[in-house]
Amino acid sequence: MQQYLLNIQQPVGDPPPPEVLEPIMRELTALNDEMRAAGAWVFAGGLHDPDASSVVRVKDGEVVVTDGPYVEGKEHVGGFTVLRAADLDEALKWAGRLARVLGLPIEVRPFHDRA
Questions:
Q1: The Cα angle at residue 83 between residues 80 and 85, in degrees rounded to 5
Q2: Could you give the residue ranges of the DSSP H alpha helices within 4-106?
């Protein structure tokens, strides 16, 4: 089984109001439970806004830390799911279900084979 990263592409800005967000979160919980039952779910998590980021790099041999995201844009990774799937087609099916629940684009990327 291959592992895949499903990145949730979220627009910058305030989240939807509770009356919009709560039903989405219920559906997301149900989908995560279904992935677990199918043996596909590895783990998932939501992320703070990009302004909570720090970037660490080496410059002239010294470690430098800067506040803020590495790249600023109109969208950012707002959360992710790591799953196991037999192949890309299966991962894309789960990603399609996730996109339907969230109403947001999902980027699917395979991990390098660990073998």
A1: 145
A2: 18-37, 88-102
Reduced to 3 states (helix: H, G, I; strand: E, B; else coil), residue 58 is strand
The per-residue pLDDT for range 21-42, each reduced to its tens digit, is: 999 999 999 999 999 999 999 9
Note whether 7 and 82 are within 8 A (CB).
no
Q: Model confidence over 90-112: pLDDT tens digits?
A: 999 999 999 999 999 999 999 99
The residue written with tokens 């990774």 in the block is 77
- Using CA atoms, how far apart are residues 60 and 63, in angstroms rounded to an integer? 8
User: Residue 48 half-sphere exposure, CB side, CA atoms within 13 Å?
Assistant: 6
Residue type at position 63: V
88, 13 contact by CB (below 8 A): no
Distance CA 101, CA 103 (A): 6
C-alpha 92/C-alpha 106 separation (Å) is 9
Residue for token pair 């799937």: 85
